[in-house]
Amino acid sequence: VCPIGEYEMSVEEKLAIIKEKFDVLSKDENRKKVFGATDHRYKLNPVLKAKEIKAFEKKYKIKLPEDYRCFLMKFANGGAGPFLGIEELSHSIYEYLDHKSSQYVLDPSKPFEISEPWNMEYTGSREDEEAFEKWAEEYNDAKWANGLLRLCNYGCGQTINLVVNGPEYGNMWVDDRGNDGGIYPDSNFGQTGRTSFLDWYILWLDDSLNSIKK
Fold this sequence. Notes:
Distance between the termini: 33 Å
Shape: globular
Oligomer: single chain
Strand order of the largest sheet: 3-4-5-6
Structural class: alpha+beta
Order of helices and strands: EEHHHHHEEEEH
Helix content: 25-40%
Number of helices: 6
Radius of gyration: 18 Å
Low-confidence stretches: 1-6
Number of strands: 6
Strand content: 5-15%
């Protein structure tokens, strides 16, 4: 049971809310006003079977958070969702969602070690190319994304990720190193603290429904 707002609901109750709100949003005449709608077009990928998820978990030596697992099995394997949409499970291990390549993949089997908003600003001179390149190499090292699955592409080099290994297990985090913004807990919908996957998806639905009423 996970809290959302002032109430506590089961995964099944949250999925029921998601299905109801998504049905309303995807049929609204103003649905195209939502950011990213022209990319995902409110299409949902077919759900996964338990054995397919188990194979993924075995391959990458992880266990998916229960709410995300239920989403994959009972609602969709990605598709419509926040910003440019939700990645299908098999694509979530790519380091760069704009340029998916098997040459650049994350390592979710290692723990995500960040627990507070993190950034590493360059304080040297831009004229010192060697120092800047050393900083850039460290700052953009894939190790900072260990234990993450890239679930959502915001665009412009920013991704929203699910922690699948480490103390922040089950929470949504933003990786905005592409804009020198660092890595921090997701707050795109005005929420504070930590957000689980299903709560995050419901927040998107609520935000989208509110935006098309304006």
